Amino acid sequence: MTAARLRCASGEPWLIRRLGPTDYVPTWRAMQAFTDTRGPETADEIWLTEHPPIYTLGLAGRYQHLLRDNGIPVQKVDRGGQVTYHGPGQLLAYLMIDIHRRRLGVRQLVQTIESAVIQLLDSYGVAATVRSGAPGVYVQQGDREAKIAALGLRIRSGRSYHGLALNIDMDLAPFADIDPCGYRGLAVTRLRDVGIDAPRAEIESRLVAALDAAIGAASKP
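Predicted structure:
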């Protein structure tokens, strides 16, 4: 694990933690513990990681969206949203943000995170968009849109945790055994399939820079 401090565009401090591969449940519990014990002056953090294969089901998630048992474990968690898949080759950016201190609304935070991912993709020459009522980021593939980044947050006492999952170069087959994010037949894609073949470290750095700029611009003094 490596950690680096930086100053957000709004003046707020960040701590960026590159955790490397981690198991899902201990990381989730660590996010909860960090959120529950942080104080009013605690710096916001971004945790970058990836997980072994696992399906996670949000608070309102329905097991009917798990279409068949393929042996991949399923974990019920406390984020928003339905079911998604995490696995090697995916970038998780977990966002521990004091939204009360930054004077950010929840929907505003979601839109800001989405805009940061769109900015990241644009930096590689790939156009992306969002869908009304379906958080995440989508790209055009042929005659259809495909989801390239999923989003799910939990807000507790004015602080966020969980975050976004960006598909870099992962096996997409497990998505066929679920209704991704609760949508039957939703197409899913990855950076490699839209022509982005950059090193993971570069993608992480560009994503952090995009999140810093977007959240810094949205934060109110």
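Summary: The chain has one domain: 2-218.
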